[in-house]
Design brief:
It is built from 27 helices and 26 strands. It is α+β, with helices and mostly antiparallel strands and 860 residues long. It folds into five domains: 198 residues, no CATH class; 180 residues, no CATH class; 50 residues, no CATH class; 222 residues, no CATH class; 158 residues, no CATH class. Strands 4, 5, 6, 7, 8, 9, 10 and 11 form an eight-stranded mixed β-sheet that branches. A six-stranded mixed β-sheet has the order 24-19-16-25-15-26. A hairpin with a 4-residue loop joins β22 and β23. α7 runs parallel beside α10.
Length: 860
Amino acid sequence: MTVWKTSMRNFLAHKGRMALSAVAVLLSVAFVCGTLVFTDTLNATFDKIFAVTSPDVTVSPKEAAGNDEQPADGKPASLPASVVQQVEKADGVKKAEGAVFSMAVTVVDGENKNMGSETGAPTIAGNWTENDLRSMEITSGHAPRGPTEMMVDADTAKKHRLKIGDELRTIAATGDFTAKIRGIASFTVTNPGAAMVYFDTGTAQKHLLGETGVFTQVSVTAEEGVSDTRLKQNVAAVLDGSGAYRLQTQQEAADANKDSMGPFLDVMKYAMLGFAGIAFLVGIFLIVNTFSMLVAQRTREIGLMRAIGSSRKQVNRSVLVEAVLLGVVGSVLGVAAGVGLAVGLMKLMSAVGMELSTKDLTVAWTTPVTGLVLGVVVTVLAAYIPARRAGKISPMAALRDAGTPADGRAGRVRAVIGLVLTAAGGAALWATTQADKATEGSMSLGLGVLLTLIGFIVIGPLLAGVVVRALGVVLRLFGPVGRLAERNALRNPRRTGATGAALMIGLALVACLSVVGSSMVASATEELDRSVGADFIVQDGGSGRPIVPQAAEAVHAVPGLEHVSDYTFVKAKITAPDGSTEDEGLVAADPTYQQDVRRTAVSGDLAKAYGKDAMSVGDTYAERHGVEVGDTLTVAFTAGGTAKLKVAAITSDDTNIDRGAMYTNLTTAASYVPADRMPQNVVMFAKAEEGKEKEAYAALKSALAEYPVYQVQNQADFKETLKDQIGQLLNIVYGLLALAIIVAVLGVVNTLALSVVERTREIGLMRAIGLSRRQLRRMIRLESVVIALFGALLGLGLGMGWGTAAQKLLALEGLEVLEIPWPTILTVFACSALVGLFAALVPAFRAGRMNVLNAIATDG
């Protein structure tokens, strides 16, 4: 009970200091719990909609594309309408309905504005069936009744201000067609953002599938008392176990849909948890510093406790109880803040088009438990070393403020261990740069990053003495105040090292990712300049949809173009002379593609690969299977027949563009694949006539104005898009790392605040001998800036080392240019000084308000 009372008294006596550490725990726990609640809610939302929209049993073609794939020919796989009649005859079937479903569409208004989602969610077109009533209800107008009528979902209508009577154009592989909105249907479950459009069955078949009398699936409803598993068996029996169809129960269909979303949700979840872990790591430094300084300030008090009979265990336990209190308070608040963060993320997602309802907010019991356990355990572990140090102080040494005798020896041991770890990490990073394969080097890189990070943390006090003295050259420009700031930063190198290390971690990751991102952009830009000869590239803006024939025709009809190259990918099984068969596939392109993307032939003549019944292979494939120019490969086209193609060239895979691609002529592929199953263009390339580049660029954009999902880019546009994409990704990462940096800033604030309290008498004496409030505040601000710059120098230097090693691995994949983004590095360094100034505002203000006489009279 005495330990509990002592801990509570100390905890409440330093509640201001504890509050900053509690905020660090709160932020870290909030990020973990917020991530778990947000991803659980996303999973629950998709689980619900997948479960509700899936019929009791679904019958679909075996070759149907996956839920996240676009059909290569723009038309989903179909099955004959006769299957519906067959299924209806199965025992236990209450109703069988033919459904049409396609995501290979674009819907635009009269101004050619895309009515689809801007978040990457699909536009889904189909026929209106009774199965749709599971998740939707018609709230305005009526279902489509003819070829000129359509229905849209309420969310899309609201987002684009659509109303009954508006006319929309649907772009599909079979051609464009228009229809007027005659109905609006609302979701009865949460719609994550997909745009839904419905037509009558005949119109959907004709325009989405290219023929009537076919469906993409059959939705089967069971009679009362018939299980889905039993119904599936009965349906399989009437279909004579045909291998042409895939049968799924409601649960199986829902699971398949969920699996298609799983990788995306897992990446999001674990990435965010990773950044939360970084914030926890940074928070550990803050907590260690807080308890170390509180223990140091209570040295005499601890001596008195020991003198009157308290054991080392009781002193140790007293500090750990304070840590538990801090962990519990911070974690409880963090769990609540995490739920609020999840709601905020949901609102943010809704604002950008991905609708998520708070009605589906999912807080599993494991989430608060995880938050509490993490927060308390991390806090107690961080406080263990200061607690152990407090328990080791002898009563006499404590009463005379002598500190811990072993501190000097422990510091030397720590320095040796840190130097060994850093050297081992440096050796691992060097080994990374010498690796011959990226997979081998990645292990060395991970080990090098880990060891150098730990090494820098361990030798932080040693580095603090060196770096702060170097920065002191600048501080001395501020006269005596600057020298005092330097001495204060050097007074306790361990504290300065720990505070700077907290900032170092976040900035090291920022620097590393900046180097990698800049090197990727520079490498890709150099590759484009070296390899791409086309003036213009036409492709989908991001969803991977093929280019519909009418858009391709519009490109071919543009005046002022020297040539246009069609480019597509044809799935096939390729058998090499050694008898091995692989699912490789072929790039089918026009012969002019050689001019658009320059590939180096290591043997043979690439031009001949575009001849009749000829092809090329990459040198990696050729080496693996012993293929030489003149050999014949057996190519079994998935959508057509089997061909014997002669290898006319072997190309170098030392490139990022079309690495490993096997080329053949479009006409060769078309002679083995039926016209109605030939894949549409994935991308198109164009070369302008000499001197007509600007006119051709404008004409291309004008020709594709009616097809807003396709982008026309010249090489400058393409480079800028690449730069923007990597920049956006880095900005997201930087935003997540900001959490760790915020916690690090709290650490600087806490260190300075406790340092001011620790030096109360000293500050009073300095004020008494003439140091003004302004000079005092400047001294504390300069001390804060030095600590921040110390952390920045370590972090940026370490991060650039990591980034340079990582780029050597990228070079093995063709990204050979190393570029250090000096503007970003220097900006971050300058901002670190601002961070130091910001962190010092409150401690400096409080120090300036101290009463001089009371400060001098302070005991300790």
